Amino acid sequence: MQDKITNILIVGVGGQGTLLTSRIIAQVAVQMGNDVKVSEIHGMAQRGGSVVSQVRYGAKVFSPIISKGEADIILAFEKIEAARWLDYLRPDGMVIINTERVNPLPVMSGKMKYPDDIHEKVAALIPKTTIVDATDIAVRCGNIRAANVVLVGMLSSAMGIPAEEVEKAITAIVPAKALEVNLKAFREGYQLM
Fold this sequence. Notes:
Order of helices and strands: EHEEEHEHHEHHHH
CATH class: Alpha Beta
Largest sheet: 6 strands, mixed
Strand order of the largest sheet: 2-3-1-4-5-6
Mean pLDDT: 93
Radius of gyration: 16 Å
CATH topology: Pyruvate-ferredoxin Oxidoreductase, domain 3
Distance between the termini: 23 Å
Number of strands: 6
Shape: globular
CATH architecture: 3-Layer(aba) Sandwich
CATH superfamily: Pyruvate-ferredoxin oxidoreductase, PFOR, domain III
Number of domains: 1
Helix content: 40-55%
Strand content: 15-25%
């Protein structure tokens, strides 16, 4: 258990596994003796809209909401979502960005152009930025849907969380039929950081 409250903002679009990720991180924090609060904003998830999860843990957490400028880490499953939520990051915070591109409705309709270099712009602004093709790693592990767990591995490693604690949480939460692929994806992500 720790006295300091840790704030993790998980951002992506519907179907990328942000909610499962928040459950895994929260479970790990509970296993390690922390008080945990989780907030989830589903938005228009079924239409590729933003999905945001906030996980806060420490000795005692009173609110599930991360204020602007207080996130220790932004875990971004999609490039534009990383940029969209940067104002929530602490000045010395870290960003982990999956290079996956999911076109929002204005781009699909031709009203706007997707900013292809958005993750490089984020990296130029935030010194502690890691950019990864978690989707490709997940495919190599056996299932594209495990990209979220690759990112969990990177996050856990960056935070110094013991791999066995996270594997225990993954085993408790992920369905048995997907467990082997998810553990492999987690280990790949953990070794990257």
